[in-house]
# Entry
Amino acid sequence: MQGWIEGFQESIDFIERNLTEDLNIEDIAEKAALSPFYYQRIFGALCGMTVGEYIRARRMTLAAQELTKNNGKVIDVAIKYGYDSPDSFAKAFQKFHGITPSLAREPGASLCSFAPLHIKITMEGGTMLDYRIVQKAPFTIVGTKRRFQSDTSYQEIPKFWSEYMAPGKKHSVMGTFGVCVDMGGKDFDYWIADLYKPWEDIPEDCETYQIPGSLWAQFTCKGPLPDSLQSVNTKIWSDWLPALQGYELAGKYNLEVYGPPTENPEDYESYIWIPLKKS
# Structure
């Protein structure tokens, strides 16, 4: 997967070359030969932050350097790094550095610096992931969906589940699946869904969506939710994918599959399905 790693680094280099320009996730992901949907998930697993957080951190670092080196107007620096007003720039600057832009020019001012990322995959011991590759025919899900942005999805999707599954609330579906469907850019639809049965009526608050036939890498996650699922998810993008040979990512969706409840949370099994195609 060396070519994949090089492509991902090229995407980061592209960000660095264009920090004073408008950056969109489609152009960034294209440099890594990935869809925005997959790129953002891999970036988060490898880098520990969202693409947006990385861009903001790098812009704030360079903006502080400029303010300490010259006597240009704050508004000029703000506009250069993508802010349309001194106030919005000052708020972002103070959140990152802990001081205002004007104080940053004082001798001895304490500032934060975030260096450019360099992707390196190193062997630090084996990582065991229980998975299998299987062929599945097309199937249809039925459920309810909500649109999310990748930058906030880790915080917002659990709220969606808690709200939908709240005690005393009527549930149109049991929640066998959690399905992410790419809608382009930073947006994706997340479904709480079950397998659709054509002989049953579709509930009023639900829709259907067909999942195409595909090869799937199916990963087992054992233990309490959400920790077991999130842990495996991170390993998929940071450890398993860079070592993958003979296959590449496919489709614009991935699935979480939830098993029946168990008495002991440590015995609970859920699954992550990633669509693949042969290289």
Q: What stands out?
A: Strands lie at 131-136, 139-149, 177-182, 187-195, 207-211, 214-222, 247-249, 253-258, 269-278.
